[in-house]
Amino acid sequence: MSDRYLEQRISIKFCVKLSKSASETHHLLKEAYGDEVMSRARVFDWHKRFKEGREDVRDDARSGRPVTHRTDENIQKVKDLVCSNRQLTVRMMAEELNLDKETVRLILKENLNMRKISAKVISGVLKGEPTPRKLDFQTDLSKETRKNSSCLRKKRCNLTMLPRLVSNFLSQGILPPWPPKALELA
């Protein structure tokens, strides 16, 4: 994380050396930095630290676990797990790797360029490819019905276009997307 308040802490240290009060220091910082000034409480806290003899303007290191678990090692583990079994959900991967679900999701999305589809993840390579072939046939079907739009307005559809649609689908090796009962009517 970048330290956006470092310059202000240096200014606070300078004000302490000039024997300015914490209130005066905060007022000067507000004039200089406007909306980007650190909070009044933080200014008073840093003013007190520098007055007590602190020299370092950098913030203290904090204890606790690291901010992120998105290390190269964990990214590789997630990648290997996805390659070995594409049927795993994010939750299953998180449990197996002892990582947080959000960490696994972020690794998949941002580091491995994958996305979630129905709780499963797919490669980001598929994003740029055209939609599956079945959708092309649905487009063909809608073109045919637009040509014969009068058929849609009638209560009983003229079945003359049904055999032609069936033959179009069968010639391309795909079963029509309507129920078999409709085929029996033809």
UniProtKB/TrEMBL annotation:
Recorded superkingdom: Eukaryota
Stretch forming the signal peptide: none
The UniProt entry, under InterPro entries, shows: Mos1_HTH, Transposase-MT_Hybrid
The Mos1 transposase HTH domain covers which part of the protein?
Answer: 9-53
Q: What is the name listed in the Swiss-Prot or TrEMBL entry for this protein?
A: GVQW motif containing 3
- Recorded source organism is Aotus nancymaae (Ma's night monkey)
